[in-house]
Amino acid sequence: MRWATRAGIHVDRTASAWLIRRFVDPDAEFTFVGDPDEVPENATPFDMRGVELSHRGGECTFEAILRRYELDDAALSEIAQIVHEADLEDERYDVPEARGLDVLIRGLSMVRPDEEMLELTGPLYDGLYEYRRRATMLGREPS
Amino acid sequence: MAGRWVLLAYRLPREPSAPRLAIWRRLKRLGVAQLGDGLAALPLDSRNREQLEWLADEVIEADGQASIWIAEPATAAQERDLAAELQGQIASQYRAVAAEARKAAADGSRRHRRTLSRLRRELGRIRRRDYFPPPERDEAKRTVEALAQRLEEAAA
Description:
Oligomer: heterodimer
Strand order of the largest sheet of chain B: 2-3-1-4
Radius of gyration of chain B: 19 Å
Order of helices and strands of chain B: EHEEHEHHH
Shape of chain A: globular
Number of strands of chain B: 4
Radius of gyration of chain A: 15 Å
Strand content of chain A: 5-15%
Helix content of chain A: 40-55%
Distance between the termini of chain B: 53 Å
Number of helices of chain B: 5
Number of strands of chain A: 3
Largest interface: A-B, 13 and 15 residues
Shape of chain B: elongated
């Protein structure tokens, strides 16, 4: 399937693309557009104004995708909190890692184009997911 | 020389008041310059634009009207006024942090370790919204670090 989002991706869009590819559509292909009117007809848009998979009621796009595809997974819910705080900074959740993640992704986006961002951040989110998954199983932070 | 700004023009129904209040809080947290009733501005960057766009969607969800504009002040004086408004808001936040740090340092008790980490976080939050740094910034930073040193000494 084709998916489309706004160009100039940061934390919510890189994390959402990872989530889509890993849990929703393994063959996902991503297109980056400058204006909502440029979304190809056969593509599902996300993290854009006025579409289903986007910010709603104070939640970020990553959270909207979890909800829409009923991805019920404790580690994903924790990543959702980190992405929420990195993206919205509204202090709804106490996740200090959010600030660090935001700085790393933002910095990376200054030196790499969008397509490459997905290749580079994919393993990072894989790792974050594994870490949160082990933490959930152990009931403490894994070393 | 005029910089570019992103504007949110919005109108919300008077009732219910909950969404009005929620939007107002979010605008305050973003540190906007309020240009008038229902018109808010931030210096243009991708993050500010995005945050105001999400807010516009929330206004629309709450049965209001909202639009996003990219604008340049027509005169340098107008831009100076706008910058001064934002700088003034931020300066008073820095002053509040400095005052609290001074008070905690004067007291010197070890329970102020918590105050210290809260004030450091608060400084970080203010700095991320500080587009036109006022002199109060360095003063606040110095005062908070002086508190840190005072607590170190008290523990030694």
